[in-house]
Amino acid sequence: MVVGARLEGIQLSGIRKMFELTTERSVNLGLGEPDFQPAQHIRQALSDAVEKGYNKYGPTSGISNLREALANGARKYRSDITANDIVVTTGSTQALMITAQYLFNPGDDVLLPDPGFVLNVPQVRIAGARPLMYPLKQEHEFIPQVDDLEKLVTPKTVAIYTNSPSNPTGGVMSIEDIRAITQFAEDHDLWIVSDEVYDQIVYDREHQSFLGDYDKVIHINSLSKTYAMTGWRFGFLITKAPIIDKLSILNYYTIACPNVPTQHAALAAMTGPQEHVKQMVNEFKRRRDLIVDRLNRIDGIHCLVPKGAFYAFPKYDFNISALDFAMECARSDLICTHGSAFGDAGEGHIRFSYANSMDNINKGIDIFEEVCEKIKG
Ligand SMILES: Cc1ncc(COP(=O)(O)O)c(C=O)c1O
């Protein structure tokens, strides 16, 4: 075997490449993180933890009162979740990585959403498994269709990944969608790897979780987006299946233990006031309404109203690849992401993050309008 063979063909994501084109003049509607800072009491808890001397190694799966607080939060989805069902990780990125490392062997097949979050395909490949891409289409509000899954599933399929609310589409599954996919997973004895990092960022509805009666679910979550603490790298996973000790062993061999001061801040986030989260989500909703309205006024652009996360994922009618379209925008000082960065089925779409001010969204869409005019010629 060639040195580094598992990384063959794997590069940094397309989002990063667009980000690198940012200049001082750019309006950035490319980034996938809140433009807010963590609330004051959460920042204070982080500096207090450092001052109080919580600067040493901690337990491999995370400190117990924090895991209890996380379990308490998850009991709204499944009432028998306990602290012992949780492993705290370095962002959900690492939770996804150890999940893939544990679940898959070379020769396995894994069902992944297309378009979908940029880490999924590389992580599954690095684990030696084969991604089988299932389509998310605008005409189905970007919700997976069981018929499509049935056509793709093979005897070697081990798992299906889901992501609701979705990055990049903003699609949100209903309880009926969750039931249908869970039934499909049960019929084929599959694991469900359910990425729910945007569970608190939903508009005019309650989030529906895959945590339920079916035990072969690994729920992936994070405080990155909810509490605007992407740089602090706090994530976690929850499962009722009896594999938590194995995942904890992988945690140990990857990071020894999660970042200790950040866990104290996470505890403050989970147990403190939640009003600031509601305010942030209300502000995202105002911005969503603005961007969707402005996009749909452009001839040749068709945008669904996203039900969650902070991305708009319009389809366009023009004869240009999504990458060339996004590059043309970048040359005009607008950073956005080509839909094809999220998989082949994202071709013909552009992703805008509306985690930016109303002013910048207006400026960005002014530029986008001009670029569209130019492309139409
Ligand atoms: C769907 C989804 N999952 C996981 C992540 C990773 O987030 P983190 O590692 O900060 O928890 C992101 C970040 O953009 C995401 O959009």
In short:
By secondary structure, the chain is an alpha/beta fold. The protein is built from twelve helices and 14 strands.
Please give a handful of descriptors for the protein shown.
alpha/beta; 12 helices; Aspartate Aminotransferase, domain 1; Aspartate Aminotransferase, domain 2; 2 domains; globular; 377 residues; binds pyridoxal-5'-phosphate; 3-stranded antiparallel β-sheet; 14 strands
Could you characterize what this model shows?
The chain has about 375 residues and is α/β, with parallel strands linked by helices. It has two domains: about 5-40 and about 275-375, Aspartate Aminotransferase, domain 1, CATH 3.90.1150; about 55-270, Type I PLP-dependent aspartate aminotransferase-like (Major domain) (Aspartate Aminotransferase, domain 2, 3-Layer(aba) Sandwich). The protein has helices at about 15-20, 40-50, 65-75, 90-105, 120-125, 145-150, 175-185, 245-255, 260-270, 275-295, 320-330, 360-375, and strands at about 25-30, 85-90, 110-115, 130-135, 155-165, 190-195, 215-220, 235-240, 300, 310, 315, 335, 335-340, 350-355. The strands form four sheets. The protein has a seven-stranded mixed β-sheet with strand order 2-8-7-6-5-3-4, sandwiched between helices. Strand 3, helix 5 (about 120-125) and strand 4 (about 130-135) form a beta-alpha-beta unit. The longest helix is centred in the C-terminal third of the chain and has 22 residues, at about 275-295. It starts with 13 loop residues before the first helix and ends with a helix. The relative contact order is 0.18. The mean pLDDT is about 95. Pyridoxal-5'-phosphate binds near residues 117, 195 and 222.
